[in-house]
Design brief:
- Keywords: Membrane, Transmembrane, Transmembrane helix.
- Helices cover 44% and strands 21% of the residues.
- It is of the alpha+beta class and 253 residues long.
- A four-stranded antiparallel sheet has the order 1-2-3-4. Strands 7-6-5-8 form a four-stranded mixed sheet, with no helix packed on it.
- Strand 2 and strand 3 form a beta hairpin.
- The protein is elongated, with a radius of gyration of 23 Å.
- The two termini are 41 Å apart.
Length: 253
């Protein structure tokens, strides 16, 4: 069974882009790891996911169960199809992951982040919006008073699709590759978020708005199995820095 699950897309090993080269490849790596993570405020994303799912459940009830004499099995079948497609499209929207490759040396930290283009779920969301909009017409024909409630489902999906399809930042997230490098001496603070398995290091950054240096977060994503090992090694390199443990809200720019 384990051999079969290894071939699933989400179990495939993370491979660094072919065109990427580490700047300090000639130096011994103290630690290296690759990981998929959600580099944004997951609390907001999760809240949006459950809010939209609750709307979908309400829209599903209005479209398939209210004022309809169809057999129960038919209603359940259409509901299952609608909710399954909606779930996949919404989950692909709110739970997007980015790939990270970290390399720690005696000099500092290098990280490469990228996201392979994957727009299949965007196509699913587009067509689901069209299908749901057609279903709304039947709901309104049966019960005009349910117009605004029925419209909330496909209307919300449509706005979500249009917003993402025309978002420059979102498109760049799917196509661009970024490489960052920090020297150990640049960091000033360490914050650990154990529940989320995030190590946040702060380093000076020159703000283009104020032309002054401000403390800017650098997020290191880990996992449950290796979090303590990653913290220990980073702590060894930054023994003199203050360390605190608190919840970290990842900022997306």
């Amino acid at each position: 069974m384990n051999k079969l699950t290894q071939f699933l897309p989400w179990n495939q090993p993370i491979k660094i882009p072919d065109h990427h080269n580490w700047k300090h490849a000639n130096k011994h790596a103290l630690l290296e790891w690759n990981i998929k993570a959600r580099p944004y405020n997951t609390t907001v994303a999760n809240g949006m996911f459950w809010f939209m799912m609750s709307i979908a459940l309400g829209a599903c009830y209005l479209m398939f169960f209210k004022n309809d004499s169809s057999p129960l099995i038919e209603k359940l079948s259409w509901s299952a199809i609608f909710l399954s497609v909606f779930f996949l499209a919404l989950y692909g929207t709110t739970h997007q992951k980015t790939k990270f490759a970290y390399r720690l040396t005696e000099t500092g930290i290098e990280v490469c982040e990228w996201k392979a283009p994957g727009k299949g779920w965007m196509i699913a969301l587009k067509w689901l919006t069209v299908i749901a909009a057609i279903a709304v017409l039947f709901v309104v024909a049966l019960d005009p008073s349910a117009f605004w409630v029925a419209l909330a489902g496909p209307g919300g999906m449509g706005l979500l699709y249009l917003g993402l399809a025309n978002s420059r930042q979102f498109q760049e997230l799917h196509t661009s590759h970024h490489t960052y490098e920090y020297q150990w001496s640049e960091f000033k603070n360490i914050t650990l978020d154990r529940p989320k398995k995030i190590i946040c290091l702060e380093a000076p950054w020159l703000s283009p708005h104020s032309n002054e240096y401000v403390d800017w977060p650098f997020y290191i994503f880990s996992d449950k199995r290796n979090f303590d090992k990653h913290v220990t090694l980073i702590r060894e390199q930054l023994k003199e820095l203050p360390l605190k443990e608190e919840s970290v809200s990842v900022l997306q720019f």
